[in-house]
Amino acid sequence: MSWKRITGSWPLWAERAALWWSVLYAGGAAVAAATGPAYGYALLGKATGTAAEAATAGLYGAAALLAYTLPRRPDRAWPSRLAWPVVALCLTSGFAFLFSPAHALAVLFGRNQPPMDWAAWANQGLAVAGAVLWACAAVAHRRRARGRCVSCGGRAAAAPGGRRTAAGLVAVAALVPYATLKTAWALGATVGYTGAGKPGMDPRYTSDLGIRLYEHGVDITALLALVGMALALALTRPWGRALPRLPLLALGWAGAGALAPFGIFLAVMGALAWSGLTDWGVADHAPWVVVVAYGGFSAYGLALGRATRSYQRTTRRACARC
Fold it and tell me: Which end of the chain is more exposed for a tag (fewer CB within 10 A), N or C?
C-alpha cells in the first residue's frame, strides 16, 4: 500500500490507532510506576516510581476507554469533544519534544549543557505522535457525527478572507516586542534587566555560535522570531501559496501547539520566581519583560493557530469521494 493511500485513508484507521496508542502508552506508564525507572514518564520531575507515572497511566487508560467508545458512538458529539482534552494531555506530555531540536543543537555546539535524556526524548516524541493521532480521531468522529464526508468535511475550500490576513498580522505584532528587546540587549542596552552580566545570554547555556553572534549585536532567538514572523505571513499572504503546503501546515500547527502554552508557562514561572517560591532566572527581569515580551509567545501561538487553520481550509483540494 502506497504512502499516499495510507495518508488519504486516515479517517478509516485514526480511531483504532488512537486506541492502540493509548493502551501502549498507558501500559508503559504503569510499568514505570511499578518498577521504578521512569522511561521519560516523570512529568513532574526526574524522580522515578512516583505518583506522576501512576497518574499518567490512569489518565491514558481513561483515554483508551474513550478511544474504544469513539467508533461505537458515531452519531454522538460528546466523544469527539472529550477527545480534544486528550490531545492537550498528549501535548503536555510531549511539550519538551517540540523544543528538542534547539536542545540537541545546544548539546552538540554549546558549553556545559546537560546531557540528552534519550529515553525521555523518545517518550515525548511518542506523546506528540499520540496528539496527532488523537486529533485525527477527533476530527474523523466529529465529521461522522455531523453526517459529513470524513475525508474533507464535506466543505468546499473557503475563500481567503480578512480574518486570515488579520491573524497573520497579529502573529507578527506579537513577536515584535520580543525581537526588539532581545536585539536591544545584544546591542548593549539593559532595559528591563536588573541582574549581573549580559541580559538575554548566559554563556553556560549558549552555543559558541550564539555567543559570537551576540558579541556582534545579533541575538539568535531574535532571528528565530523573524523566522516565526515569516511563517505567519507565508500562511496568510498570496506568495505563501507557492510554498509546499504540508511543511507549512506542520510548522504552523507545531508552532501554535508549542508557543501558546509556553507563554503561559513563562508567566507562571515568573510569578513564582518573583514571590520567592522558586529560583529561576526570570527574577532578574522586570515584570513587564515577561508580560510584554515573553507573554507575546501565547498571543503568537493563538494567532498562528488561527492562521494555520484558515490556510488549511483555503488550500483544501476538492474531495473525489464527495
Answer: N
**pTM attached to this predicted model:** 0.69
Distance CA 87, CA 99 (A): 18
Angle at 92 between CA 246 and CA 231, to 5 degrees: 30
Are 168 and 233 part of one and the same domain?
yes
Q: Which three cell numbers stand for residue 46?
A: 526526574
Task: Give the total number of structural domains in the chain.
Answer: 2
pLDDT tens-digit series, residues 250-293: 899 888 887 887 777 777 776 776 666 666 656 677 777 877 77
Clarify whether residues 127 and 217 are in a common domain.
no
Cα 284 versus chain centre, distance: 27
Is 156's pLDDT higher than 60?
Answer: no
For residue 141, what is its C-alpha cell? 468522529
Question: Could you tell me the residue range of the domain that residue 230 belongs to?
Answer: 162-314
What sign results for the dihedral spanned by CA atoms 186, 187, 188, 192?
negative
